[in-house]
Amino acid sequence: MSAQLAVFFILAAMAVAGAVSLIVQRHPIHSALSLIVVMAALAGLYLLLEAEFIAAIQIIVYAGAIMVLFVFVIMLLNAGVEERTSLSRTAFYAGVPLAMFLLVELAYRVERASGPMAAQPSPAAATRGLAMLLFQDFAFPFEATSILILIAILGAIVLAKRDV
Amino acid sequence: MNALFARHAILLVSMVKIVVLMFVLMTSLAYLVWLERKVAAHIQGRWGPYRVGPHGLMQPLADALKFLFKEDTTPAGADRFVYFLAPFVTLSLAISTIALIPFGPGAVQIFGQRTPLVIANVNIGLLAVFAITSIGVYGVALAGWSSNNKYSLLGGLRSAAQMISYELSLTMSVAGVLLLAGTFNMSEIIMAQSGYTWGFLPRWNLLSPTAPQLLGFFCYFVAAVAETNRLPFDLAEAESELVAGFHTEYSSFKFAMFFMGEYASMITVSCLATILFFGGWLSPFPQTAAFAWARYLPAAAFGIAGIALVLNGLRYSTAWGRVMLPVMGILLCALAGLLARPGSVDFLQGPLWFVLKVLVILFVYIWVRWTLPRFRYDQLMGIGWKFLLPVALANIVLTSLAVVLHK
Amino acid sequence: MVPISYYIALSAILFGLGVTAFVFKRNIITIFMAIELMLNAVNLAFVAFSRALGQLQGQVFVFFVIVVAAAEAAVGLGIVILIARNRQSLNVERINLLKL
Q1: A73 close contact with C: CB closer than 8 A
Q2: Which among B90, B211, B195 has a CA at the least distance from the CA of B139?
Q3: What value of ipTM does the predicted structure carry?
Q4: What's C4-94's CATH class?
């Protein structure tokens, strides 16, 4: 059990625990905090995979901006504890065993199919390589996403604005 | 025993560095509060803490005891888990950024291992610091929400919105430095600022010959003051507004954690400003033979401070002060003598210049707080989005133009 | 050395948990968060494959997925705010008719 394997299992356990907690918690703010834990664990896994720029971007953008947006909306809308209706209770007791079976089957099949794929030596200076790819080969999608973000900003403002 | 050390040497060495740095950070946090109260007092024409120990030097200890013994209340109806989590998140994130900051050039020998003067020299050091500060927004927002208090909620949401708005300008104002240095690694950013233009002007990023980062530093400083919720941007937590903002319902040790978290993030941001714009641990004097006397300046400064303490102490009002202050002065003179020895004078140059620059920036921070009036919230958000963001973008454009033309 | 298939299995597990949360939760914001969890699981698979094949195109795609997720979260939460304002409830069982 090398140190890398131990770190992988700790981070994987943290991610799965966070995801299970997302499902089990009754208040949406606790679900949001669990999702932040999952994202932090995933950032650690990206560091283990030597994708350091993506790890930093995951924390800055995903955990530090998108989840802040979720938390703000939950606080502003004063979302309360989830109510339990008869429909949701049936779905829960009937569906959870099926979901567990689906998960285990999926993971087992995926692991069998790919086999123990070894990792090739990663390209050094991933950040520089990523920048080269992003600004040369993928320059058009890059500019297109910037227009996409502009449209999203305008859309969000128009949707959530109060007519004064 | 030596075999055990050899196998886990990295872990032990890192632990020693962490313990030393934590001790230094906690002490300087406490005495930063003392410095702020003294500077504030002198700006306002009064003495400040004077009685608790000579010149109020025991004041941080008294404050710590007060925080420990105050009653710790939890408001009724508060979400307990989140209420306990919020100050913990704020303080731990504010302190953990100090692990990424390089304090000096050379290497120290601990347990026979040569290790650099930084706990974690990661290749994305700068990006990691920004990642940690962007998670710090949660401490504020969750504290405001979990207190079950409408004023806390409003204060927390306002504070969090302010922090994420200025975070954008903060990260963009640093892009000019990245263009000049070409790497996120903090030690390499400092090394890219070594050298002296025209033989005597240090090649710091503020005065860089390719693209002087004056606009970038101005943008960074304003965004940093707003990011750490300090005056003139502290409407969300000021005393006369919204009770006390997001930390209204927190008492004793949890409030102390918020308090320490604010000062720790101030120290972090100042250390970052030193590294990015003022050359980190590089000396402002050229390393030539004509300036060899400049190497003894830190030791000389300690010596002068020691003598001043002795002279002040001999005429102090209380008897305790008349004994303690001269003793501290003599200790400082002895330290100066130790520093001036040929073995240590070069080794300690880096950290001492770094600490001096950080202290200057912290002084400007405190000075700005006690001089300028507070901004209203809509003025604050207007500055963040309509003024600072375009200035940061203009800085990026100009710097990239200058870098391309220089090549 | 961690075999890449372990990362892929973890990604499958997280995706399955995201689907479970999407199907079983009743609060619309929690359902939205389950979508983000699924996107994160896919990101992990991309980065793992990028490392296995030694190419950086996987990481470029992760970059774009994160950007698109940000835009989608912004617009989606705007719609959620409108729904909450008009129907005074965040329960999806109450939002199943076009009539208010």
Answers
A1: yes
A2: B90
A3: 0.92
A4: mainly alpha
Alpha-carbon Rg of chain A, whole angstroms?
20
Which partners does chain B have (≥3 C-beta pairs < 8 Å)?
A
Instruction: Say if A72 is an interface residue toward chain B (CB within 8 Å).
Output: yes
Q: Do C67 and A103 touch (CB under 8 A)?
A: no
Q: Which residue has the tokens 């973890």?
A: C10
Q: Considering the entire predicted model, what is its pTM?
A: 0.90
Structural domains present in chain A? 1-81 (1.20.120.1200), 124-164 (no CATH)
Residue A102, token pair as written in the block: 């689906």
Tokens of A107: 């993971």
Cis peptide before B232 (omega within 30 of 0): yes
Domains of chain C, by residue range, sit at 4-94
Task: Outline where A25-85 has alpha helix (H).
Answer: 28-48, 52-57, 67-77
A63 near C CB under 8 A: no
Asked if A159 lies within 8 A of C12 by C-beta distance, the reply is no
The chain A residue lying nearest B165, using CA atoms, is A65
Please tell me if residue A66 touches chain B, with a CB cutoff of 8 Å: no
Inspect the interface and report whether the beta carbons of A54 and C62 lie closer than 8 Å: yes
SS3 A26: coil
DSSP B32-55: HHHHHHHHHHHHTTS--S-TTTGG
Strand partners, B109: B114
Other beta carbons less than 10 A from residue C10's beta carbon = 27
Digit-coded pLDDT (tens) for A106-128: 777 877 776 556 556 555 577 88
3-class DSSP state for residue B201? strand
